[in-house]
Design brief:
2 copies of one chain form a homodimer.
Chain A: E1 3-5, H1 25-29, E2 30-32, E3 37-42, E4 54-59, E5 64-71, E6 76-81, E7 87-95, E8 104-110, E9 120-123, E10 127-130, E11 139-142, H2 151-162, E12 168-172, E13 188-190, E14 198-203, H3 205-220, E15 224-230, H4 244-258, E16 264-269, H5 280-293, E17 300-301, E18 318-322, H6 330-340, E19 343-348, E20 352-353, H7 364-376, E21 380-383, E22 385-386, H8 395-398, H9 406-418, E23 426-427, E24 436-439, E25 443-447, E26 455-457, E27 460-461, E28 470-477, E29 482-485, E30 490-491, E31 493-494, E32 500-502, E33 508-510, E34 517-523
Parallel strand pairs in A: 2-8, 11-12, 11-21, 12-15, 15-16, 16-17, 18-19, 19-21, 20-22
Antiparallel strand pairs in A: 1-3, 3-6, 4-5, 4-7, 5-6, 7-8, 9-10, 13-14, 23-24, 24-25, 25-34, 26-33, 27-32, 28-29, 28-30, 28-34, 31-32
Helix pairs in contact in A: 4-5, 7-9
């Protein structure tokens, strides 16, 4: 009989799962909505056990989902499922191995517990929210190889994240030859002494147990895991140049193992255009492979170097962009929304750091400025850091500890975002140099970047304004993290041009003449 | 027997074509390569003569093209053809009307005459060239309703264009209710006294004779006609809300009449997203209809208001963008290339003028600045003017005369473009704030916009540079139209960063501290 259990919370210590004993009665029969329900099925296969086809068909009578199963070593196959709705679910297995075929069971999906808001999806074209409707205000970071580090370093990374503002982590599945890979775990079975001697049809479950533990640990901290399936930083193990068949098999395996974790996002690649062995057609196929295998439709994107993938393609849920110059100016950033009509995350905009490489030496203020320009453009931005510690390690490569100045300011930014209109900021009167984001008629955020004005003419574009609206103003210092309310209110009237409204009695707002200031206008009820 | 003739040159006076007499012996038997060969076929139809299907199948043994025919009134059908290759061509007609079916003939396509470079197409992804390889350096203008003006005003427009720098004219097919339509010609047969009483299945050949004469007249001046098939400025005649069947019939008719004119480009619409009666699916279908009917594959685009069409779609040959803010900054402009990987023309960037509307009050320097920012981004820009003359007419609406300051500066710009690398300028080290366009290793153009520096650090990005290259420099005043060579040469060596080369002996170039300056570096042979 199949065993069902939840493993959420059993995080860093997880290894090979034992079949009996790990499951308790509650785990077998109940799981939270959006939680992880797991079925373990022991059997004996003839031939390669990874070749066995297995799927769990889950239904609550209204919704039926096909969750792929996978071989997890030691004679055990597993099927993981994340129920999208509360109530009773039944499942049946389908398999090419008769011992795994036609197995059945059921469980109850309970109301989600505290902190479980469900998976993140795209809402209102350009923004993100959890499945329960809670806005998701993306403040991402990247530590490519953190899952490949020794346990102590992984624990340090998680400790750092506990008090950091980040709610998304970009991370590689495959090891990165240019990053120290201190634990000798690899995703495939070795077939010889050479660094590229792999049996690409046989996975190493221990490698994926560690990866899953990391994904689960992020989930426990409320952090989305942007799982990067391919990358060009190999040059050693050959995982960047596998044949298409091996790529597809690998994608299916990763999706089968991870898609039930509600905090998983799929990034097809980092700097996809450096991977010269793959064409755009290959990426199309990989996207479609993920889409076909993942019953939940987790977020899907692809990250560029110099050449952009066509993000209009229907399998792209949002744009994941590398371009530091785009977030020097909200109008540049906004263009990516307008052209693709999808949510935009500038996942790589250069990093705060002290490297001589130009992508790794932003000052703290420059890192923070990028987020603010992105915010008022209605887009999202990602952080990382490159301050080498002993041995040359830094957050971007290995995780560990943060040494820069931006993180507290990004926490402050996040608090501003969370107090703003849900699900997010829209650019206002775009293409007309307003540098304003918000919700027309209700909320305006003006960001001044490197300008240091002594006053601002409070001219509000006419959208959703008819005159008589009253707003209060806050002067925000994005670097010193202060919010100073301006006294009184602004009562809007038509200006001498049809395009703007303002308060004739107080057409300007005094500002302190410092850089990196913002003004927030909030409608008075 | 069919009559063949050329009409190129018989321009403003053209009316209904007479069958006999208009053709001369040379016209019947010979036409220039890329010229216009026309067959006139008299017949008598039962029912609506516009419903008769007619196509000419043209072949030279290697290439076979199907040129659509059309009913031209007075019992005559015509087939127009523009031979893409020199040599002997044979044709056969296919028709639903037996009198028009199976007609045959032949002619010789001669070498093109002076000034005939063939049609313009996209080359090297982002640029344009004539079919004979001559680069086409786009300097467009717009006079939406010029073809609907009285003959004297049309002649004035052509006189103006004779000495203006413009090599493309954007123009509406349908009349524009907000523009004076002084000649009472309409594209369809009237069926009653109401302004919307049209038989949408019967065209008015006289309307199209005038339109064709205008297209031909532009062609004679070396000006491409960007023919706008639909627009939202009607509100009176109802051509903006025809049923899909009428749209398609109209598109086929216009394409049959105009596609053989080598200077025709197709613009599906102006401000397509204001046309609320059409969906993106309608635009897809209209694009595909043009593509299917036009045997030459003339350039195809669609022009936006606030919402962008997906220019990645395969039937879009280049992007035609309205966005004035994009050309305030080359990095903004460049984004449109990177996302769609197609040539970009910013056809509407606000206009030089004196209107109170914010889209019609650029100063001359602002109009010219837009072209320069666009140029170094590797894109192209369009001009127009709104200086109302008596009665409120201005160039943008009706054509006529130019009153602004930008046109001579755009002629100067064009001379700089023509002296530059073919087929056009590429952005250099994009996304890294260089504000440089050119051809790496050979030619660099730095534009300073509103900055007024007293010197420029001549730091050249490393692409195609290894050290030892020698460049001479010109200081260009884009407004005062001067080119001042700097003495001596710059000999490049690696800088103290891996990203740049410069001349250690003269790391900077003196500049006059004025706005709107540029520097050109040209490799010394």
């Amino acid at each position: 009989m199949a065993q069902g259990m939840t493993r959420r919370g059993a995080i860093l210590t997880v290894g090979a799962l034992s079949l009996a004993g790990a499951a308790n009665a509650e785990g077998q029969n109940r799981v939270e909505r959006w939680g992880l329900y797991e079925i373990a099925l022991p059997a004996t296969a003839v031939g390669n056990p990874f070749d066995v086809k297995l799927v769990g068909v889950f239904t609550n009578g209204r919704t039926t989902l096909r969750a792929p199963g996978f071989y997890d070593g030691e004679g055990v196959w597993r099927i993981r499922f994340s129920p999208p709705e509360t109530g009773a679910w039944r499942w049946t297995s389908e398999s090419s191995l008769s011992a795994l075929d036609g197995r059945q069971g059921g469980f109850e999906a309970m109301a989600p517990g505290a902190g479980n808001h469900g998976p993140v999806g795209v809402v209102e074209t350009y923004h993100f929210a959890y499945a329960d409707g809670t806005p998701y205000r993306q403040i991402g970071t990247t530590a490519y190889g953190w899952t490949h580090q020794p346990q102590a370093k992984r624990a340090q990374t998680l400790e750092t994240l506990k008090t950091a503002p980040f709610n998304k982590m970009r991370m590689l599945v495959f090891p990165n030859a240019s990053v120290k890979t201190n634990e000798a775990l690899f995703p495939f079975e070795k077939t010889g002494a050479g660094e590229k001697d792999w049996d690409l049809t046989r996975f190493n479950p221990a490698y994926f147990h560690r990866l899953e533990a990391c994904v689960a640990a992020l989930g426990a901290l409320g952090i989305e895991a942007d799982v990067i399936l391919f990358h060009p930083y190999d040059g050693r193990y050959g995982f960047d140049e596998m044949p298409a068949e091996a790529d597809d098999r690998y994608v299916r395996y990763v999706v089968a193992r991870l898609s039930a974790y509600r905090n998983v996002w799929w990034s097809m690649a980092n700097e996809f255009d450096i991977l010269k062995t793959k064409t755009d057609g290959d990426w199309d196929r990989i996207f479609q492979g993920v889409q076909a295998s993942d019953p939940y439709g987790r977020l899907r994107s692809i990250h560029n170097w110099r050449r952009l993938y066509d993000n209009c393609k229907p399998w792209v849920t949002h744009s994941s962009i590398q371009n530091g110059s785009a977030v020097l100016d909200d109008a540049r950033a906004e263009t990516y929304r307008s052209v693709w009509k999808k949510a935009v995350v500038f996942d790589e905009v250069c990093y705060e750091g002290s490297l001589s490489e130009r992508w790794g030496n932003l000052t703290g203020p420059q890192m923070v400025r990028a987020f603010w320009h992105g915010l008022i453009a209605g887009t999202y931005v990602g952080h990382s850091e490159c301050f080498p510690i002993d041995g040359g390690e830094f957050w971007l490569g290995e995780g560990g500890e943060l040494r820069g100045e931006s993180a507290p300011r990004l926490a402050f930014l996040k608090s501003i975002m969370e107090a703003g209109p849900p699900p997010g900021i829209e650019p206002i009167d775009k293409w007309w140099e307003q540098h304003l984001g918000g919700a027309p008629g209700q909320y305006y955020l003006r960001y001044f970047g490197d300008d240091a004005p002594a006053e601002w003419a409070v001219d509000i574009p006419r959208d959703e304004i008819t005159g008589g609206e009253r707003f209060r103003a806050d002067v925000i210092d994005t670097w010193n993290m202060t919010v100073e309310p301006a006294p009184g209110v602004f009562t809007l009237a038509q200006k001498d041009t049809k395009y703007f409204f303002h308060d004739p009695a107080r057409p300007t707002l005094a500002l302190p003449g410092r850089k990196w200031m913002a003004v927030r206008l909030t409608r008075v009820a």
